[in-house]
Amino acid sequence: MRIFYGVQGTGNGHITRARVMAKELQLAGIEVTFQFTGRPIDKFFDMEVFNGYQIRTGLTFNTHKGQVSYLKTALDAKPLTFLKDIKTLDLSGYDHILTDFEPVTAWAAKRQKKPVLGIGHQYAFNYPIPRAGADPIANQVMKYFAPADIGVGLHWHHFGEMILPPIIETPETPTRIIKNKIIVYLPFEDQAAVINLLAGFTDFEFHLYAPEVVASPYPHITCNPLSRTGFQKDLYDCGGIISNAGFELASEALQLGKKILVKPLHSQMEQISNAAALKELGYGHTMKTMDKAVIEPWLHDNHATHITYPNVAKVLVQWLQDGMPKMDADFVEKVWDGVNVIKLDLSKA
């Protein structure tokens, strides 16, 4: 079996999910060609698991101070390059075409009349899940950005729909938690402003990760470059995370039993909806702006949710090998039977 797998490179969530899928596909002996789009080639890191991969320009969303800018996105788009990439991508030698919200792969497959399997959080929006912040542009982007013939949607809860749990690593539960250690991942925010906002909380130890490192003058705030290994090490024993409302990091935090505070990107329907879902499910806290009045009580809150998710990547790889039979209610229910939700009291950790 040969698979072509397109992965959206804006942010790190899609790539994190693809890393988990790559390991299971390799264990199954399936030959995979990965393609990544949405960021410059020098901005990718820790990509060894993909054993060689293709890079194309694709499409991405531009942000400024924590808000998606549709105008800047449109101005910076390279439509001729995008169309050329679609026309020149040859998918004739592959048995299956997969996309994790990656548009070049999706549209090239459409052009070549090859079925597309979409795997990712965005495909959960084909169902009536918690939504917020929608507008006509956002709705069209979700529908047409990377269309799939079959969409396997992922979410923290099934909401009574044909949705699967997140695709994430399944590490052992941490045996030691440093309650005052907080991971901060706000790559779309002004990092100097984030540092200044956290400066007064000297009883806590903040570990910031960002694409561009800004020096911190405060001993309790450490700034780090993006590193999958370093980030995972800090995430493992921290007490909580402050982040934008991306799906994959929140999934990892829930799997490790970390308390969560998210600040969704403005004008980004997916992130605003993620924040709404976290709040509705009681899995995390939200804030609309970088607000000390929200951060301070959250820092002292000792409640978190620990969710054990099954190895969904392994389930999907086996499903692919079985010929992709229609996912019925029994199939989905069996996967969710492997999910366990526990409310934690961090004061006893």
Computed CA radius of gyration, to the nearest angstrom: 20 Å
Query: Count the helices. How many?
Result: 12
Largest β sheet strand count, sense and barrel closure:
6 strands, parallel
CA(first)-CA(last) distance: 47 Å
Q: How would you write the strand order of the largest sheet?
A: 3-2-1-4-5-6
CATH class term of the largest domain: Alpha Beta
What is the CATH architecture descriptor of the largest domain?
3-Layer(aba) Sandwich
Portion of residues within helices: 25-40%
% residues in beta strands: 15-25%
Q: How many domains make up the 3D coordinates?
A: 2
Taking pLDDT < 50 over at least 5 consecutive residues as the criterion, the unreliable ranges are: none
Order of helices and strands: EHEEHHEHEHEEHEEHEHEHEHEHHE
InterPro entries: MJ1255-like
GO molecular function, one term: transferase activity
Keywords: Transferase
Protein name: Glycosyltransferase
Structure description:
InterPro entries: MJ1255-like. This is Glycosyltransferase. It comes from Methylovulum psychrotolerans. It is a single chain. With 349 residues, this protein is of the alpha/beta class. The chain folds into two domains: 2-167 and 310-338, Rossmann fold, CATH 3.40.50.2000; 178-308 and 343-348, Rossmann fold. The chain is built from twelve helices and 14 strands. The protein has helices at 13-27, 70-76, 79-88, 103-111, 136-144, 191-198, 228-237, 247-256, 269-281, 292-299, 312-321, 329-336, and strands at 2-8, 31-37, 53-55, 96-100, 116-120, 150-153, 178-185, 205-210, 221-225, 238-243, 259-262, 285-286, 303-308, 340-345. The protein has a six-stranded parallel beta sheet with strand order 3-2-1-4-5-6, sandwiched between helices. The chain has a six-stranded parallel beta sheet with strand order 9-8-7-10-11-12, sandwiched between helices. Strands 13-14 form a two-stranded antiparallel ribbon. Helix 3 (79-88) crosses helix 4 (103-111). It is globular.
